[in-house]
Amino acid sequence: GAGVSQSPRYKVAKRGQDVALRCDPISGHVSLFWYQQALGQGPEFLTYFQNEAQLDKSGLPSDRFFAERPEGSVSTLKIQRTQQEDSAVYLCASSLGHAQSQETQYFGPGTRLLVL
Amino acid sequence: GENVEQHPSTLSVQEGDSAVIKCTYSDSASNYFPWYKQELGKRPQLIIDIRSNVGEKKDQRIAVTLNKTAKHFSLHITETQPEDSAVYFCAATKSNTGNQFYFGTGTSLTVIP
Asked: How far apart are CA B75 and CA B63, in angstroms?
């Protein structure tokens, strides 16, 4: 079946622009996660949704970052007034649930954001 | 929160040899430990995982061991092949609590033909 998809795959933004990154999780997956992956590093947690509820946003680096999942499926990560330090790959992952045996996360291909 | 450390950061082995990557974690409540393989420019792909109620799990040439007392777990790849070359990430999480994954910093494995 279809895996997690993300769009766009690449985004170049001028400093100060707003960007919106989209994630389509695996159908039926309750949990959705956003991670930020800097070059040569492991993914770092940004935020987590269970259905439409954003249960954890402790990893968002500043109030310029905002995420939503209004209908419990597609999610959008928005970054306002982008800065050069926002340049990274943004990965989306989904899992069936959060209970034991449902927690395996499946990743999308990521959006590579470059802020000039 | 959880802190996962991974080493080595780079590893080169001859084709056919074994490769071992080690990770430690800090939160004794963590109970699920996946390993991901990430090829350049591609998505992380789950290759094996282990839960805290077992000490070892094997899948063909790949095995993972877990020592809960010492809070460390390791990935073992035997009979390495050039297509095993990639970056490998370990992660730790607590099931049933929202389970964000805490990742290690990655190991770049090169298998030399």
From this structure: 6
Q: For residue A32, which residues of chain B lie inside 8 Å, CB to CB?
A: none
Q: Residue count of chain B, please give it.
A: 113
Which of A103, A104, A107 best probes binding to B when mutated, by most B CB atoms within 10 angstroms? A103
- Show the CA angle centred on residue A25, arms to residues A6 and A94, nearest 5°: 110
> What pLDDT digit, counting tens, does each position of A23-75 carry?
999 999 999 999 999 998 999 999 999 999 999 999 999 999 999 999 999 99
Least CB–CB distance from A42: residue in B93, B100, B104 = B104
Closest by Cα among B110, B23, B13 to B72:
B23
User: Does the pLDDT value for residue A1 go beyond 60?
Assistant: no
For β-strands B4-7 and A19-24, DSSP reports them as unpaired
Q: Minimal CA–CA distance to A42: which of B70, B72, B35, B77?
A: B35
